[in-house]
Amino acid sequence: MATFGTLSDRLTETFRNLRTKGRLTPADVDGTVREIRRALLDADVALVVVKEFTSKVRERALGDEVNRALNPAQQVVQIVNEELIAILGGEQRRLQFAKTPPTVIMLAGLQGSGKTTFAGKLAKQLEKEGHTPLLVAADLQRPNAVNQLQVVAQQAGAAVYAPEPGNGVGDPVRVARDGVEVARRQQHDIVIIDTAGRLGVDAELMRQAANIRRATDPDEVLFVIDAMIGQDAVNTAKAFQEGVDFTGVVLSKLDGDARGGAALSVASVTGRPIIYASTGETLDDLEPFHPDRMASRILDLGDVLTLIEQAQAAFDEEEALKVAEKLAKEQFTLEDFLEQMQQMRKMGSMKKMLGMLPGMGQMKQQLENFDEREIDRTEAIIRSMTPAERRNTKLLNGSRRLRIARGSGMTVTDVNQLVQRFEQAAKMMKTVARGGVPNVPGMGSMGRPGASSKRGKQQKARSGSRSGNPAKRAAENAGITAQAAEAPTGSGFGLGAGAPKPSEAELAEIQKLFGKG
């Protein structure tokens, strides 16, 4: 996540220096702990939390569990990971639903923290889970707050109760109480009450929030806090805990580029769990908060579980089986590829998904340079083809490729590269579907032991002619250059330029090696 990017970079660099040491001395541990302390303080984590955190890490790092470990550096990373999980709340905590509906959820927080947007995100997520939420517009203070909630509710496909126009008009306590009654009569099983905030903590804000809580007796009071608020996050959280008290925390704007470490302090200081994390501007950008997964992201260990969950939610299992069957029968076409791309888009930002893979923090520059619009361009090219052309790329002669390029607003070169990349990728996928092991460019041969080294020697031998005859040497070198020029360009599907294609004999040998065929 962008908010913890700087903290992640600093911690990763600290551990990278540690991995060069076979045995850790007390001086090494002290130096590592000192760097961790600086990284946390620079990220705006509260001083009291930093002191407690580094003290526990140092104590454990000097203990027997590290001294007796085969890899002391990895053991220290594990300790930091476990202590990070602890300050983030330990275990995941889900919403608590009332035994007798409706479940009342009250939102509290400062103005601009993202309460209204979160109300829409939560309503949409609960709708997907089969609930029927009702949004109650009890923020009658902020200009156009009622209208904003109505718009958000419409986008989320949820009902809204807004009897007052707002803008300083109406009694928010009465609206909140009546909203719960309306939900009970209309059989909504969840009520989400959007309350007013202020630019800062004051007596009037706390009094109004406390009155709404007494009038509605909510099952959950969620404190929504801006992850970019800085060191004031702890003071604000303490003030709301004393004035209203809350049962859980929501971190908003985690996609921002501020230091955001103060958000890590809230759960530890208040003793209240973080339940949700808001990771973007759209209504789908809401994730249940998992302390262990967040700690893994901060330490650049990846978050594969969340990635899998998003994939399962976006991909149709029946469609996936059909695609696997087509691959086995060598019938995978550009139409199928287009459908797969559209399903991937349902998962959200490709950058965000790639960022969940372990070690991707070290490829930050490549991630930043990744162009999300490349998928749009690919889709435009495929959509400019006729159904017959999508099913059989061999039909694509020069005039057809020119027509497709003009229709998609791209060049003939772009069309050629897409077709080449698709054919290479399809061939690799067919190999996997048949139980073979593909020859992945850049990874060498995955066939019998020693094959890659032999091929490497052969390629080295072909790198230039050593003939004593100048004319013969020039002719051979020209042949090598021409052969290199024929290699396909483009890097889609992770294939890179000049991707070698496995022969049928190689595939048969690989399958034999793995007991296939």
Detail the topology: elements first, then pairings.
Layout (H helix, E strand, L loop, with lengths): L4 H14 L7 H17 L4 H15 L2 H4 L4 H16 L15 E6 L6 H14 L4 E6 L6 H12 L2 E3 L10 H14 L4 E6 L7 H14 L3 E7 L5 H12 L4 E5 L9 H9 L3 E5 L7 E3 L2 H8 L5 H11 L2 H12 L5 H13 L3 H6 L8 H6 L3 H11 L3 H5 L6 H11 L3 H22 L17 H12 L7 H16 L18 H10 L4
Parallel strand pairs: 1-4, 1-5, 2-3, 2-4, 5-6, 6-7
Antiparallel strand pairs: 7-8
Explain this structure to me?
The chain is of the alpha/beta class. Helices cover 55% and strands 8% of the residues. The chain contains 24 helices and 8 strands. The chain has helices at 5-18, 26-42, 47-61, 64-67, 72-87, 115-128, 145-156, 172-185, 203-216, 232-243, 262-270, 291-298, 304-314, 317-328, 334-346, 350-355, 364-369, 373-383, 387-391, 398-408, 412-433, 451-462, 470-485, 504-513; strands spanning 103-108, 133-138, 159-161, 190-195, 220-226, 248-252, 274-278, 286-288. Strands 3-2-4-1-5-6-7-8 form an 8-stranded mixed β-sheet, with helices on both faces. Helix 10 (232-243) links the parallel strand 5 (220-226) and strand 6. Helix 5 packs across helix 12. The radius of gyration is 29 Å and the shape is flat. Mean pLDDT is 75; it is low at 440-462, 482-501 and 512-517.
